[in-house]
Amino acid sequence: MRGSGASNYVPALGFRWLTPYYDVVVGLTTRERAFKRALIGQADIRPGQRVLDLGCGTGTLSVWIAQSCPEADIVGVDGDREALAIAKEKAERAGVAVRFDEAMADELPYPDEHFDRVLASLFFHHLSRSAKERTIREVCRVLRPGGRLHVADWGRPSNALMRMLFFPVQLLDGFSNTQDHVEGRLPELLRSGGFVDVAEGPTFATMLGTMALYSAAKPLRFAAR
Predict the structure, then answer these.
(1) Which helix (H) or strand (E) holds 182?
(2) If pLDDT is split at 50, 70 and 90, which confidence band does 2 have?
(3) Which sign, positive or negative, has the C-alpha torsion 58, 179, 51, 78?
(4) Mean pLDDT, all residues of the chain
(5) Most C-beta atoms within 10 A of its C-beta, which of 45, 53, 192, 213?
(6) CA–CA dist 183, 186 (Å, integer)
(7) Region 19-35 average pLDDT
(8) How confident is the model at residue 7 (pLDDT cuts 50, 70, 90)?
(9) Strand 115-121 with 143-154, pairing
(10) Between the CA of residue 182 and those of 140, 155, 178, 188, 208, what are the distances in Å?
(11) 108: which residues sit within 8 A by CB, 6+ positions away?
């Protein structure tokens, strides 16, 4: 789901022919195991909870969530059919129960107040500002009151080296899409989309820049916007 809306859809790594290499690239350049394990720990998923992996891609995070809490109900959603095929094979090999759905982030096929947790890893920086705003509102819709969103994505560079290393990501994914991340605006966008208790967690220095964790909650009394 490297985009939002059919006309803006972009495959993983920007090109379909690169999709089979996605796991290798992410694993080598982003400290994937460290930040995704931290994201899962931050989410504090409990048995019986419904969990959505938004923009699940090839399903690594979905599988790790299922392994860490097998009694939770895990759903992965993405707009990339080829990535979802890889995700389904990965879950089968791991022997975990994950349902994978094909859909776009700003038109989720789930009822209101359906999930206890939504997690998103390396997804939001692919979206334009307007697509981010639509997606955040949609995530708020499908979360139950008091449910939480947990995000791992590129954040404000922690130093000049991290800023320089992030330029290749901007070249690949677009300067306009990634500028909100360079400027640390994701918390502001979450608040504007209806979330409260927005916080930035740990950051990770990687070969491509600063990876940051965020968390936010849907208010107990939520007025749709």
Answers:
(1) helix 175-182
(2) very low
(3) negative
(4) 92
(5) 53
(6) 9
(7) 86
(8) very low
(9) parallel
(10) 24, 6, 7, 13, 12
(11) 52, 77, 138, 139, 141, 142
Burial 92-124 (b: 16+ CB within 10 A, else e): eebebebebeeebbbebebeebbbbbbbbbbbb
- In this predicted structure, what is the pLDDT of residue 24? 85
Distance CA 30, CA 74 (A): 24
Please report, as a single letter, which amino acid is at residue 142.
V
Q: Looking at residues 45-55, what average pLDDT do you find?
A: 98
* 3, 10 contact by CB (below 8 A): yes
Task: Please report, to the nearest 10 degrees, the dihedral formed by the alpha carbons of residues 27, 28, 33, 39 taken in order.
Answer: -80
User: Which range has the worst mean pLDDT, 55-64, 126-135, 188-197, 215-224?
Assistant: 215-224
Distances (CA, A) of 80 to 91, 151, 166: 16, 20, 24
What would the mean pLDDT of 46-67 be, rounded to a whole number? 97
| Coil/strand/helix, residue 91 | helix
Our measurement of the distance from residue 141's CA atom to the centroid of its chain's CA atoms, rounded to an integer in Å, reads 16
6-42 per-residue burial string, b: 16 or more CB within 10 A, e: under 16: eebebbbbeeeeebeebbeebeeebbbeebbebbbeb
